[in-house]
From TrEMBL:
Residues 77-100 have a biased composition (Acidic residues). InterPro entries: CDC45. It comes from Adineta ricciae (Rotifer). This is CDC45-like protein. GO terms for cellular component: DNA replication preinitiation complex. GO terms for biological process: DNA replication initiation; double-strand break repair via break-induced replication; mitotic DNA replication preinitiation complex assembly. Keywords: Cell cycle, DNA replication, Nucleus. It is found in: Nucleus. GO terms for molecular function: chromatin binding; DNA replication origin binding; single-stranded DNA binding. Residues 75-110 are annotated as: Disordered. It holds the Pfam family CDC45. Belongs to the CDC45 family.
Amino acid sequence: MIFINCGSTLDLYDFLSLDSIGNDDNSLTLFVLDSLRPIEHRNVYDAKQIRILILPNKTDVEKKRVPQYEELFHEVYDDDNNDENESENEENDDDDDDDGSNMRIESTEGREKRLKRQWLKKRDKALGNYYKYRSHSYSSALVMFELAYLLSKDTNEQLWYAIIGTHVLRLNHHQNTTRSITDENNPALNTSNSKLSMDCINIKFDEDINFHLLRHWSFYDSICHTQEMILAFKLWSSRGLAQLKEFLADLGIPKREYEQNYRDMNIKYKVNIKKQILDKRLQDKYHYTTNTIILPTFLLSSGFTLKLSPQDIVLSIMATLQTASSSSTSTSMMIDLTERFSLALSCLNYHQLTDYLGGIELEKVYMNKTHYLIETLLQSDKNLSFDNTIPFILLKFDQNMFNSSTTTDHTTSCGFFTHPYQAYLFARNALQTLISYTSASSNAVKKKKSKHLQRLPLILIAPYSSMNSGEELVEIVVGVPSLNSIMMNSFSTIFEAADRRCGNVAKFVFFDHSVLLLQEQHQQKFVDALMFVLAK
């Protein structure tokens, strides 16, 4: 049995009730291929039936993440059969009490209980530290490509999927770069490049301009929807838009050229764009950095079709996954995930680009809606809650925010945050923009707030599902860490603790528990529990 992109954070032995399956000879073996970390510790140390698939050269790194076996398991102390009266004894005994005035002859049974409590306390601390943060390791597609390479079964198609998988993690801000693919010590890359004629596709390394959907939008629109450029030029203001046009003039691109589709731009302007963006004089004048604008990537070409960027493919897939089909025959109010998955899978087909291009158009719709929502957010603080008494920024949207005249056909009142990817990315971008907006303000009070905001995480609460008559709205809740610790998300454990405190009202339906579903009636109770947990 194989688990792909799931299973690593579950206690599979307990979840699948393996002890109740007629499996005396241990013939059932579970293979787990998942980038989500930390791995459930019982899965790591179950040597009989569970196999974790990881990159061969990262085995030692993965082992160091997990507490030692002796810290987690003990042939006597981790037996829970005799724990019924343990809590009563804890109230009367201090684990570390060495006070000479209370010296007494300790019975063998009492000594064993004391040692057991000490060991359990150390184990709980080790597990608490281990499970505190959720992060991501290398892409599952990359692991499969490495495995194929070791078996001499690798193809360029597999390499392309590995590149796409790595870009998924980067676009979700789970990894900083595509270093795992461009690693000069990765011999698989050179091996696959020697098979170009066999696979009839050409994969070329390049340093690409990282503007949003550049190959499918105008140069101007692409810049206006690129988060790094929005922050650098402060494009929420008229002054920022004027400065952007000045920047385009310095690049030597006429208005007629940068407002038409990038593919149709005159080649004489396109060939020098990258060189001009890297110009130190322009960087100093407009205060932008190129480390997030010019990125190492790969481009695929097959025959006479247009060159494909892995970033564009990821965006097309994600937009397709999170959009409910208007022609769906499903009676469920939620997205028909099976139907969406099948359609998203077809976006990977580089021979037939219809579904891929359809996903690109959906992504444009989502970006325009995101642009509208963040602009609305900056114009009014009514959706935001933050002050010195709250340990996080609370961003709440109701259905009215999604019913404006700017809403397009593909974005219904509750169809914008139907996938954790879209919700998390929006929340992170909103946090970045909010901090940049307040720090750039001439208002002294807002500038002071900016320093405070940089230390705070953000929690987004927004409509998730539509309502039938008499049904209550279901909301999606997303936790984003502060910008100082953006790669390490501890909201999984925080949300779980808050949910226990308010009576298990949340629904953890996603593998990443930093995103959950909640009925509207439980919203305030859950927020109060969060404030208590984060204030501890």
